[in-house]
Design goal:
The chain is an alpha/beta fold and about 475 residues long. The protein is about 40% helix and about 25% strand. The protein folds into 2 domains: about 5-330, Ribokinase (UDP-N-acetylmuramoyl-L-alanine:D-glutamate ligase, 3-Layer(aba) Sandwich); about 330-485, HUPs (Rossmann fold), CATH 3.40.50.620. Helix 1 (about 5-10) packs antiparallel against helix 10 and helix 6 (about 205-215) packs across helix 7 (about 220-235).
């Protein structure tokens, strides 16, 4: 078994690992649009807004990554008594694996980072935030909640964005409490004084943060090692994991061990949140009982995955397995994704300027009519997504004797076709919710429908997309094929 195959075999063990994450939660708001002219009011681009997206950021992005890898995080943070704070609560509630404990400070705004994006580039970022100290009551509540949870988790993560949730005194108490409970502590650091992290198992600075913390050069391998060893010796830290952008990552340990890992990214679209992915991956792996080096290798692969996605993205366990098996994996398998992973992939395609089409159906027994529909759909777009009714959905629509083939078999057959780029199984009777989640540019359905009867047409048209009615092949249907098979 190759090293990558051995690592891939360990990924399922990440399921269910318990991690305590404490840190500064933010709301990442993205406004996407097109720039076609310069404002007459000044030399600035005019952004014609096409869509908005909101997601958890900061320490919340660490939590998102933990969930994507299969871990069960406990999350402690602070929000304001405002709409953004309500959004944070709502977004956390979408992940039943997360156990949140949010302290609400009425006079404190929830941190919001708004990014304006066009043509795959950020035009501007606007921040609404406060780094004022938390009240003593809020700090005490966070400390008490953490102390109650230490015994039941495998790893503690402190995600420090410098917004007030992790002041030095509380940070020291949390490290001491976690270590007393025998739990490793991983810290995504902030600032230049790492003495406040004394006793931590690991800190994860990037190259610039390492330089700022040591005032030592951090360009070459030798310089990174020297600076990291300085931190270990002067700050009492067990391991330093340095993220080095195009140069990969370096793990330097107190026992003198050094591990350099080359960058794994094939394409780089957005480095936002890659540090959060590294921290979450290390935590999920250690909580699952993986060794330090294997954990670092998986974290490096996860970082390579997210920089190839759009915005503050996450790496899923399935992404890790696919990346590790990319030379051996059956192409069809890689095309079948769940809804959340599919959303990331579709966003990446659109970020590259590719037109994404969508069609759907039961596809129980593939026949020439299906092949023609898929060929016409693929000819009208750069990437084609097929929404596939689940077995339960087909049974509700077609009766108790259907489907003839299981959803896994139907998905495999569809994914093997060159005209199909992605297959997503949905359990509802219609693909309306899936279309709303994926936001395709093109919706394709057979010409036996009129546009006003096509499910999701209103959605696609609302964001400027098109609906295409494909020509049908006469006399072809799954029901008719099955009828002809009967004696």
């Amino acid at each position: 078994m190759s090293d990558h195959s051995a690592l891939a075999a360990r990924v399922p063990s990440l399921q269910g690992g318990r991690v305590l994450c404490i840190g500064d939660v933010m709301l990442d708001f993205f406004t996407y649009g097109e720039v076609e002219r310069i404002s007459p009011e000044g030399p600035i681009p005019v952004l014609r807004v096409t869509r908005d997206a909101v997601m958890l950021g900061g320490a919340g992005n660490v939590v998102r990554n933990l969930v994507a890898l299969g871990a069960h995080p406990h999350f402690l943070s602070v929000v304001g008594d405002d709409h953004a704070g309500n959004d944070v609560t709502r977004l956390l509630g979408e992940h039943p694996e997360v156990d949140p404990f949010l302290v609400v400070e009425a006079e404190r705004p929830t941190t919001i980072k708004t990014r304006f994006v066009a043509g795959g580039q950020q035009l501007l970022r606007a921040d609404r935030e406060s780094a004022a100290p938390l009240t003593e009551d809020s700090l005490a509540r966070l400390r008490q909640a953490a102390e109650h949870l230490f015994a039941g988790v495998g790893v503690v993560v402190l995600s420090d964005y410098g917004k007030g949730v992790l002041p030095p005194a509380l940070t020291r108490r949390l490290i001491e409490g976690a270590r007393a409970a025998g739990k490793p502590v991983i810290i995504d650091p902030k600032g230049s004084d790492y003495r406040i992290y004394r006793g931590a198992t690991m800190v994860t600075p990037n190259r610039k943060e390492l330089h700022d913390a040591t005032q030592m050069p951090a360009g070459t391998d030798a310089e990174v090692i020297a600076a990291a060893r300085h931190l270990i010796e002067t700050c009492g830290i067990g391991h330093v994991l340095v993220t080095r952008s195009q140069d990969g990552m370096s793990l330097i340990s107190a026992d003198g061990a050094v591990l350099h890992l080359p960058a794994e990214a094939r394409e780089v679209f957005d480095v936002s949140g890659a540090g959060d992915t590294v921290v979450a991956s290390m935590a999920a792996c250690l909580a699952a009982g993986l060794g330090l080096e294997d954990s670092a290798r998986l974290a490096n692969i996860a970082a390579g995955i997210v920089v190839g996605k759009v915005g503050t993205a996450v790496a899923y366990a399935s992404d890790l397995v696919a990346a590790l098996h990319h030379s051996d994996i059956v192409a069809g398998e890689a095309k079948v994704l769940d809804r959340t992973a599919a959303m990331d992939l579709v966003a990446r395609w659109q970020h590259k300027g590719q037109t994404v089409g969508f069609t759907n159906g039961c596809f129980d027994l593939l026949h020439p009519g299906h092949v023609s529909l898929l060929a016409q759909a693929r000819a009208a777009c750069d990437r084609l997504v097929v929404g596939l009714n689940s077995d339960a959905s087909v049974q509700r629509l077609k009766g108790p004797t259907r489907p003839v083939q299981s959803e896994a078999a139907r998905a495999t057959v569809l994914a093997s076709l060159a005209n199909v780029d992605l297959v997503v199984i949905f359990g509802e009777d219609t693909p309306y919710e899936l279309i709303a989640a994926l936001k395709p540019d093109l919706l394709v359905k057979g010409a036996d429908y009129s546009i006003d009867k096509v499910v999701g047409a209103d959605l696609v048209q609302s964001w400027g997309g098109k609906v295409v009615l494909a020509d049908l092949v006469a006399g072809q249907s799954t029901t008719g094929t099955i009828a002809r098979m009967k004696p």
